[in-house]
């Protein structure tokens, strides 16, 4: 479908790409991966026609449609959300207008036998057929479904785009591109401004949309779910893997090991050859052999090994000063902006050492509660911070508080204390400030670079309550891994506001869900929460369906006795169904108990006790057990409630 042939891109005389070639096939879902600065965004820009290569070419069929979502863009002004989304169908409305114009012209003309008249009829026929193919029906349903999927409310449809933040306006642009259903989708960090529910909706959409996809993302769970092919850009070359990201990581380790062995063998060959040349250079009897070896070295294509990514860097927070046993305690807290109520009578207790996540759709109050904890805004109710709580806070505006006249290195050196000062350059390298980048002035950094620098500075401050608001938006996977390991090892308390499921997985042990002005506590990690939410949504759907059925029944003109009988019959059916569901979960719990008991015996043996894979499997079974017990408790309570209704 698209052919990349001998593509070369140079910046300042050094190649970003060096004669790379590959094909993009119909329905390919490709993840572009590599270090920051490797050229991922540049490649997308070349595909979209925004940038020309230095040499080589990309062959794109003329009738192929391409949709491109860049990381940063200039947004249109003066339109509502619905009007902006409708622009996705401008080609349809333009075609409809052209057909209407031709119909009017045909009605007015009388030269029925002329060639021009027949040409007009043929064009009208072709355009009508084309309109039927691309769809001339009501596309407002598609617009509504897409906007709702990306987190907008129906009440937002008639609001001006200028009323929304940059993140929400990027969602509008994403909606327009998705609605166009192009043959090829080029998406550069599409999840940066989405919440977890919107990301899951986008995942489902991309998996089923049928377009070819080239995707740049640092959200590991997202690219694992969406893509089936991975192209790595490294040192000007590409490495094409026909697998998703997780499998690519394994294969890349194997390739890197092979690369190191080949490099070491070549270095030994070069050293031996150079030693031979140096030893026999001035001996006439060896002149021919020496010249032969010199030519061999000149012709030899030198192998390179990918630069180390410092992913094994062990970064630790400064030891947390001891705080009270309950760093954050909230009772009956409410917050409104004018007449708009954001949080209504909420409460929570966060214990010392806990790592918790705040999740939910954008606009549901996560950042508002963080601002309450930081005493940045007023509220009603009670919010207590424990004894000796020292807060370290990361938010997007933290980047604007940096001293613009300091260099990157000076900014970190100013707050670093102790042995960590000897590792500043390693730390900066792990966060994409390696080499000359560490000597840049803060004032010349981009917004993303400033955010990363503010994050590094926070890592080095002695605090015992970390509050991180979307900390991963501008971090690549290597930097996210470094940050995640540092937070896991942190002995203080952590609140993370994030949509990055992979980052939260294994990091938090409690999830607070924000929605409908309330906050619900969920024990367990992020994936346990997501599994519960799917079950919870289905249960709510069943309740809604039964309520509708009851409502419909009430409207029917039937006798009271017949209604009572039908209601009892339906209620008994629900009780039987609930009891059966409890029995099925009980069987699952019993089977898991047997499995875990058998695994405990195996772990008594040394070969199993030292097997990390077996230990991880054991822990996974334990989590499954906890989830099933939780599910059993909920289903049992529902069954008991149904039986109690009969007794009443």
From TrEMBL:
Pfam families documented for this protein: ABC_tran, ABC_tran_Xtn
Residue ranges of coiled coil: 568-602
InterPro entries in UniProt: AAA+_ATPase (IPR003593), ABC_tran_Xtn (IPR032781), ABC_transporter-like_ATP-bd (IPR003439), ABC_transporter-like_CS (IPR017871), ABCF_ATPase (IPR051309), P-loop_NTPase (IPR027417)
One annotated GO molecular function: ATP binding
Keywords: ATP-binding, Coiled coil, Nucleotide-binding, Repeat
Domain ABC transporter positions: 2-260, 328-541
Protein family: Belongs to the ABC transporter superfamily. ABCF family. YbiT subfamily.
Name of protein: Probable ATP-binding protein YbiT
Organism of origin: Paludibacter propionicigenes (strain DSM 17365 / JCM 13257 / WB4)
């Amino acid at each position: 479908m698209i052919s990349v042939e001998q593509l070369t891109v140079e910046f300042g005389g050094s190649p970003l790409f060096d004669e790379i070639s590959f094909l993009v096939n119909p329905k390919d879902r490709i993840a572009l991966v590599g270090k920051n600065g490797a050229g991922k965004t540049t490649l997308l820009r070349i595909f979209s026609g925004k940038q020309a290569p230095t040499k080589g070419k990309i062959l794109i069929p003329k009738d192929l449609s391409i949709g491109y979502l860049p990381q940063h863009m200039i947004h249109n002004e003066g339109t509502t959300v619905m009007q902006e989304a409708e622009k996705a169908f401008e080609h349809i409305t333009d075609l409809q207008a052209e057909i209407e114009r031709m119909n009017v012209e045909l009605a007015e003309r009388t030269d029925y036998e002329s060639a021009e008249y027949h040409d007009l009829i043929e064009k009208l026929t072709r355009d009508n057929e084309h309109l039927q193919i691309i769809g001339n029906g009501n596309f407002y349903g598609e617009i509504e479904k897409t906007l709702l999927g990306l987190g907008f409310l129906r009440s937002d449809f008639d609001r001006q785009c200028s009323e929304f933040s940059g993140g929400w306006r990027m969602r509008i642009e994403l909606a327009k591109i998705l609605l166009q259903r192009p043959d090829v989708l080029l998406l550069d960090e599409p999840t940066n401004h989405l919440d977890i529910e919107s990301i899951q909706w986008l995942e489902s959409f991309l998996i089923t949309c049928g377009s070819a996809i080239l995707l740049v993302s640092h959200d590991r769970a997202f690219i694992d779910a969406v893509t089936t092919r991975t192209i790595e850009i490294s040192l000007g070359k590409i490495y094409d893997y026909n697998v998703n990201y997780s499998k690519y990581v394994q294969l890349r380790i194997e390739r890197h090991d092979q690369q190191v062995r080949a490099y070491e063998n070549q270095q030994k060959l070069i050293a031996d050859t150079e030693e031979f040349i140096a030893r026999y250079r001035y001996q006439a009897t060896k002149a021919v052999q020496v010249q032969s070896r010199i030519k061999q070295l000149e012709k030899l294509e030198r192998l390179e090994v990918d630069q180390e990514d410092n992913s094994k860097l062990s970064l630790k927070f400064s030891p947390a000063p001891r705080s009270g046993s309950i760093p954050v305690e909230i009772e009956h807290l409410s917050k409104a902006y004018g007449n708009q109520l954001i949080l209504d009578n909420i409460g929570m207790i966060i214990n010392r050492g806990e790592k918790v996540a705040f999740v939910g759709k954008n606009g549901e109050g996560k950042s508002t509660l963080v601002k309450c904890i930081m005493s940045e805004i007023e509220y009603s109710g009670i919010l207590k911070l424990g004894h000796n709580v020292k807060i370290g806070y990361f938010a997007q505006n933290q980047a604007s508080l940096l001293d613009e006249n300091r260099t990157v290195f000076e900014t970190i050196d100013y707050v670093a204390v102790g042995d960590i000062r000897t590792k500043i350059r390693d730390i900066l390298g792990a966060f994409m400030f390696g080499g000359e980048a560490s000597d840049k002035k803060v004032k010349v950094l981009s917004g993303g670079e400033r955010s990363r620098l503010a994050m590094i500075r926070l890592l080095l401050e002695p605090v015992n309550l970390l509050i991180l608001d979307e900390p991963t938006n501008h971090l690549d996977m290597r930097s996210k891994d470094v940050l995640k390991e540092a937070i896991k090892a942190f002995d203080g308390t952590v609140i993370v506001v994030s949509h990055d499921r992979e980052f939260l997985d294994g990091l938090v042990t409690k999830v607070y869900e924000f929605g409908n002005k309330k906050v619900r506590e969920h024990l367990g990690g992020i994936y346990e929460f997501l599994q519960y939410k799917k079950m919870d949504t289905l249960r709510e759907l069943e309740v809604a369906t039964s309520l509708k059925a009851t409502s419909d029944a009430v409207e029917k003109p039937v006798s009271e006795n017949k209604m009572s009988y039908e209601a009892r019959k339906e209620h008994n059916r629900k009780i039987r169904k609930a009891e059966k569901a409890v029995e099925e979960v009980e069987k699952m719990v019993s089977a898991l108990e047997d499995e875990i008991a058998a695994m405990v015996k195996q772990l008594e043996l040394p070969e199993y006790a030292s097997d990390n894979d077996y230990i991880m499997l054991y822990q996974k079974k334990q989590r499954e057990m906890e989830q099933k017990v939780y599910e059993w408790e909920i289903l049992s309570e529902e069954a008991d409630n149904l039986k109690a209704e009969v007794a009443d």
